[in-house]
Structures are given as structure tokens and as C-alpha cells.
Amino acid sequence: MTNRCSAEAPSDIPPRIMFNDEELQLVNDTVSTAEDLVSDFYKMSASQWQRLKYDIKTLRHLQEGEVVHGPFAQVIRYEAKRKDAALGSAAYDFYKICLQDHAILGAIRQHPELRLFPFCLYIVAHELIHVVRFGRFLQRFDASEEEKMAEEVRVHQSTRDILEPVQIPGKTAVFRFYQQWCRNCDSLETLR
Question: What is the domain partition of the chain in residue ranges?
């Protein structure tokens, strides 16, 4: 099952463009920053954060079924258990955030005002908020389409609330990018 980021990338971008080494370093920096910001926002201790079972991967480390064309990222839920656990009750949810390099880079090419660091920061923070909300049972992973849309509204608002006070060059362009998408949806007025 997947939960996809709401905004979609252009469909005419070649599907297998991957982050280069310099871009990967920026993405790694966004992951660290997003983890700090999201854990602070939810007032989670280091041990609480570590209880969230997730990983973040870019295109070069995704399986074929984890690559999508459209969304900038998706969260996939897997059932996992420790190798030494014999009982089914030892199973837990493991979330994999699958960044779609080709979609992210395609959007940046089509929108030159977007810069990789703030754009990826928004995307990663957004997906981490989903993981936190799933992990805290604030949202069901297998929700109805209507519930998923309402959740997207909440998560976009939380993402903006988290990033708003942080000084990040290029952040305003990212907010504009998502604000424009939100105008096309009912009840997204809160994302002004």
C-alpha cells in the first residue's frame, strides 16, 4: 500500500534520471534537517524517534515496484520482524519513503525558481510527518480516498507550519509551488 505525495511531476520527463553525487549530498542534508525539524515539532525524544521504523531511499536503491511516475515521493508500508523472532506477534510496520529523483529533478527543470534543498526539504518533511502520524495512530495507512485527501490537507499544513519559522533560502518558491496546487483542491484554503 502506498500513500503518495499530493503534487505530481510532469509526465513528459524521462523516468530514470537519478540524483548525481552533489545532489545526493544535498538530499542527505535535507533528510537530517527534516528529521530534526519534524521530531522537534512533535516534541519527540531521541528514543521516541528511534521507535519509528522507516528508511528513506532514492531512485538508485528502489525496487521496480517502488518507482512511480508522477508523485515526488511515496510511503510504502511493509510488515517486518526481527530475524530471531519466531512469533507473528513480533511483526511491526516498517515504512519506506521512496524519493522519486526523476520527478523531483523534472519539477526543478520545469520550475527554475525551485531549488533542490528547500524543495526536497519540503518533500522529506512532508513524508516524515506521514510516518509520524501513522506511527502514532493519528491516521490509518489504509484510509479511504476521502480520508487520504483530508490527511494530505493536514500534512501540507503541518509541513508549512514546521518550515515557516526556519530561514531557508528558496523556501518561498516552494510554498508558492504547493500553494498553487492546493488552490485546485476543495478545502485547502488553510494553506495560504
Answer: 2-191
